[in-house]
Amino acid sequence: CEHPKNIPPYPGPNRMRDCYCTVNLDQEEVFRTKIIEKSLCPFYGEDFYCEIPRSFRHLSFYIFDRDVFRRDSSIGKVAVKKEDLQKYHGKDTWFQLQPVSADSEVQGKVHLELRLSEVITDSGVINHKLATRVLECQGLPIVNGQCDPYAAVSLLGPSRSDQAKKTKVKRKTNNPQFEEVFYFEVTRPLSYTKRQFDVEEEDVDKLALRVDLWNASNLKFGDEFLGGVRVPLRVLSQAGVHDAWYFLQPRENGGKSVKVEELGSLRLNIVYTEDHVFPSEHYTPLRDLLLHSANVAPVSASPAHTLGEVCREKQEAAIPLVRLFLHYGKIVPFITHPVSLCRDPNTIFRGNSLTSKCIDETMKLAGMHYLQVTLKPIIDEICTEHKSCEIDPVKLKESENLETNRENLRQYVDRIFNTITTSGVRCPTVMCDIFFSLRESAATRFQVDQDVRYTAVSSFIFLRFFAPAILSPNLFHLRPHHPDPATSRTLTLISKTIQTLGSLAKSKSVTHLSVVFPFFLRFMIKRAQGRNRFGMKNFKKRWFRLTNHEFTYHKTKDEKCKDPTQVFPPLLSPSPLLQMFQVIQPERALYIQANNCVEARDWIDILTKVSQCNRKRLSTYHPSAYLNGHWLCCKFSADTASGCTPCTGGLPANIQLDVDGDRETERIYSLFSTYMTKLIKMQEACGSKSVYDGPEQEEYSSFVIDDPQETYKTLKLIVSAVQTLEQQHTKYKRDKEHPIGDKSFQCYIRQQSESSTYSI
């Protein structure tokens, strides 16, 4: 999230606003920026990354203003349709802010069944009636923390003024099961002698069924509109039956007329990827080809290097490659193999090569918790103390003293440098393996330089790991937000100094033991156990703390763990109701509600991982709650009854490197498929180099091809594997059911008809 501009001024003498931005999946907030005070063009510069745990229709960004009474009012929004996300992928784009209207804030879908039938009256007259069955809804929005939906059904026509028929209200669910049928008279009574189905064409064209979803509110302002659909009766087939899912749509002309240009605009950089992962055997050819990259000579002919050559940014190739090689334990030879080709020991991993990007990504993935333990405490202190460390006389303020600032900087650098150099026992095993292999490879390659085996490691870990984390702590999850300008300047000076010290250091050893898993602290809501005489099960807000030894909750954030409110081994099972999950104790289940779907997913993932070592893990669990004297899932009345659903299998014990190899291979396939035209160009370049040994053609000059024949062989194998997977994806998308109103499927059908087949 970058920054908005030209926000309308506040209607008062101050005119400035205190604004923040939220990121929403449809209407569910999953991230919030810090508040920028007194600005109409606030700059946020904050990055937010998450795995999306559910389907959605819009990725939305809302700009809010907080007034002096700490009340939040919406200024405008940007809503990007899911099918349009690829158009803005990886690009800085300005979006016009749109007005926020309750009638336009819709999400979810509804399942309808329409059936036209003949009804013969006692007098022998045939009437045609429409039976409308409202079966269920999925993914309705949660309004003010609740969702009590009902459906209103009406038949629309030029001369109709029928009152809407309503379903029963379904309490506390955003996936209601209605299963209710409503009848409407469609045509004028026909003679009993006229047996065939006969509806006048002009009548059918003018009739439509409308289904609106509402949230039954207890507030005096009335019920909230959740979305609706309008189904023309001409969709009925010859059999007179129509059964389909429909995406809910906004109410027509529901919002106020607001000039869009008056609301300002918002600059965003959105990176969105979506993968459909098949069973593992489908990826065997491509996966084996990629994992063989470390054994291919020259390096430029390897499949991994080829991916880096065709991608627009080497970073998008590095991320799935590193995760794949980490998962299969081949990251060390893959990363250190190019050292044998380096000519200058001072430039090892300092370029913008694929190997450099892979090194950076490996350090981020394997060393994130190491950074948390090592740097976070002192980074937090620097960001809260606001001590000036400016040593540039030109930038020095009148009230500042150069010697005092220099001493502040020296103290910070001393503490950080000492913290880093004494943190060897916490360095992850995979990082130590990389450093050892890097040290040995550098010593073999540059035998004349006796110090290169140490400087290769020390300069690397400072230059590409610690220094960037100090410079931008928010990008490494050391701080929630981008630091203010003064603190950012302090961190820049510390980072540069640490980088210089690291380049000159002669560290003689790197020790490694087990990694220390830091505590995880969040604010959530838990359900009380109902142990009082009336059995009340109210929900209470609590702070939850997770370490690698225990999971505790407390009434306040700063409450000490030595005397916790409750301690228990985490045995976990998820529940989809309103971002809730349950942690099962020997005597009961604890129900916990997270703030949003992303946070719930994070908690479920991390609790599942740390509970793998529990000896008393359950084999079955109850996926629903125990209410009104029975389990909602299996209807057993005993609260101690054994679970009715099998638990999932175990996960890898290594918490830091839990990677889905098939998903990463699918991501690599998607990149190869996206850049197929470049693969073709690269094959042509190989042929040109093999046949014509002269000046390189300009269109092929961007490719690094050291051995045309070996590279051509690799390209041929890549294209074959990609085309096989492409056929699987085409079949999957063609056979998948899509709700009416799903424009992403319509886009796919259009692309399939327009695309041409590649022949290599």
From TrEMBL:
Residues 517-612 form the PH domain. It comes from the Eukaryota. Residues 313-503 form the Ras-GAP domain. Keywords: GTPase activation, Metal-binding, Repeat, Zinc, Zinc-finger. GO terms for molecular function: GTPase activator activity; zinc ion binding. InterPro entries: C2_dom, C2_domain_sf, PH-like_dom_sf, PH_domain, Ras_GTPase, RasGAP_CS, RasGAP_dom, Rho_GTPase_activation_prot. Pfam families: BTK (PF00779), C2 (PF00168), RasGAP (PF00616). SMART domains: BTK (SM00107), C2 (SM00239), PH (SM00233), RasGAP (SM00323). Residues 1-95, 106-246 form the C2 domain. The keyword DNA damage does not apply. GO terms for biological process: intracellular signal transduction. SUPFAM superfamilies: C2 domain (Calcium/lipid-binding domain, CaLB), GTPase activation domain, GAP, PH domain-like. This is RAS p21 protein activator 3. The gene is rasa3.
